[in-house]
Amino acid sequence: MTLASVLAEADRLCDIFAGRDALVVQTDVLQPADTLLDLYGEDIRGRSYLTADPIRGEMVLRPDFTVPVVQMHMETHADPARYTYAGKVFRKQDSDPERANEFVQVGYEVFDGGNPALADAEVFAAIRDALGDLPLRAATGDIGILMAAVGGLRTSQARKAALMRHIWRPKRFRALLDRYGGRSPVPPTRTALLAADDPFAHAGPDIGKRSRVEVANRIAVLRADAATAPISGEELALLDTLMGLRETSDHVLSQLRDIAVDMPAIGPAVMRLNARLDALEDYGVDIATLEFEGSYGRTSLEYYDGFVFGFYAAEDPNLPPVATGGRYDALTARLGEGHAVPAVGGVIRPDLVLRLRGTL
Q: Are 93 and 101 in contact (CB under 8 A)?
């Protein structure tokens, strides 16, 4: 497989999306790093290639197209709008040397608030149709349901905010849930610190970037959290059930309705899922065989906040996803300075399309 053949396949896919009235757009390979750092914090340094420019400051090799395309769209205020693009993206691979650290992506993005469920189904169907008859299985999920569940917990706003921040970090999320639910002990060093009348009584001189006032404020936050009642076992069990769901979409809808009886905060999100499944059926998707996973999409970049999906090689579970996508309304609000535009999109890797096609 040559780069020329991958680029030719990328052009073919891009033409398919352009045929759906998507505007073909391009973005710079070098992007300002401050936007990504503001969105995702310092963690993004471990996943991206950063460099310093003497005039433009810190820059990053484009890790994906979504952020620059959203920025471009928010400047135009067009509604509705559809975009397609193709080009290389760059990702550090510090744990698996076999995974590509640069590859071509082709995308299709829809900004349309008229009927979000229909837009979700449109993007899913557009990606499916572009992939043709390749031997793939589709997986779906909905980050919005878990976010709604966290937002409805009977606990402090500080705890809910912390859980929200770590929804896309499953291990950290689980550790917080166990701590907030009293299922894991508080470290002895923290217990001693919080119990001290004056935690600075035996402290030496101030060292480091944090001032004594900042440290004191942090201790006050920890003390307030320690005084907060644990999240109930009933709510923890409902969250565990929610995150452990793995069923066909028609069956999972019934299960989610049952969970919503005891966790009414997810009711509106479950209604949105119902509308989306109806729209998917209108696009010819068989929801009786469409997989749904309660935790799907939680290891992706932290901009998905609703419907998420992926297409995977049916016979090669070790192959990276051939296509992925989802809804990212909250990202448009952050990049649009509070002005949100409902948006959903997906990307395809043309190199993996060619690889699978070569095995047929």
A: yes
In the numeric block, which tokens belong to residue 5?
């053949």
- β-sheet bridge partners, residue 291: 139, 248
Preceding amide of 80 cis, omega within 30 = yes
CA 50 to centroid of chain Cα atoms: 21
User: Tell me, what DSSP letter sits at residue 54?
Assistant: T
Q: How far apart are CA 90 and CA 95, in angstroms?
A: 15
Q: Which residues of the chain have pLDDT under 50?
A: 360
DSSP string over 231-298: PPHHHHHHHHHHHT-EEEHHHHHHHHHHHHHH-GGGHHHHHHHHHHHHHHHHTT--TTT-EEETTTTT
Distance CA 30, CA 244 (A): 39
Show the tokens assigned to 153: 């917990």
- Buried/exposed 153-185: b ≥16 CB within 10 Å, e otherwise: bebbeebbebbeebbbeeeebbebbebbbeeee
At 186 the pLDDT is: 67
How many residues are present in the chain?
360
pLDDT tens by residue, 137-170: 999 999 999 999 999 999 999 999 999 989 988 9
